[in-house]
Amino acid sequence: DMCSSDLALHDQFPELVCPGAGLHPVQHDASITRCVREEEMGPMLEFIQANASHLVCVGEIGLDFQPRVLVGPNNDECIDTNKEIQFRVFERQLELAKHLGLPVNVHSRAAGHYAIECLERCGISSAVLHAFDGRAAYAVRAAEKGYYFSVPPSSCLMSQASSYIAKLPLDKLLLETDSPALAPVKQQRNVPANLLVSCQTVASVRNVPCDDVARITTENARRLFPKAFR
Question: Residue 182: is its pLDDT beyond 80?
Fold first, then answer.
């Protein structure tokens, strides 16, 4: 239903809304947070295939190995089993994205190098890892493969983010907000206007003007998501 709503918004505001679609590794049932289930994959794959011409990417898809997700809402689920389910759901969507020629938007919470290995194993050439929380060394390796990294406003609070921002070439960085999550102030609701905070964070870490960061990251977005700029 949410994906269909996004497509409806795209039809209404084609120059503002550029949709992607994918099955996230973390799902929510009412107040319960849980790992994705394999049987949920089929309908999403069908939706992506049916609407590929309207999508700029497949995502947000990926891996989330936070303990609270892997053990389940009642702390009684097998961690290894849930990891394997996430791998299968992620890789199947990567295969479809590759077949359709669409880039992927990747979630990799507490699973950075595992997500990068999946991208490499599946032969993905166009990808962005959003809000990356892994080691800078893994990010550098991924950038050498051609993958991008998007910087959210919350990066101004994270020394780990500053590390990869400092080490990656500017032509491998994008800006994002991930609204309403990942605000620059903890426990506050994020908004799209905070994209400026992301830009300022990159500019500060790299000691370059904000205007340069904005121009370069926009050029990067054009290369990764060409359908969004037509």
Answer: yes
Go through the chain and tell me how many residues it has. Answer: 230
pTM: 0.94
How far apart, in whole angstroms, are the C-alpha atoms of residue 16 and residue 57?
15
The answer to whether the CB of 103 falls within 8 A of the CB of 146 is no
Q: Which residues of 92-119 are buried (b: 16+ CB within 10 A; e: fewer)?
A: bbbebbbeeebbbbbbbbebbebbbebb
Distance, in Å, from the CA atom of 105 to the CA atom of 102, rounded to the nearest integer, reads: 10
Residue range 106-131: mean pLDDT, rounded: 97
Share of the chain above pLDDT 70, in %: 100
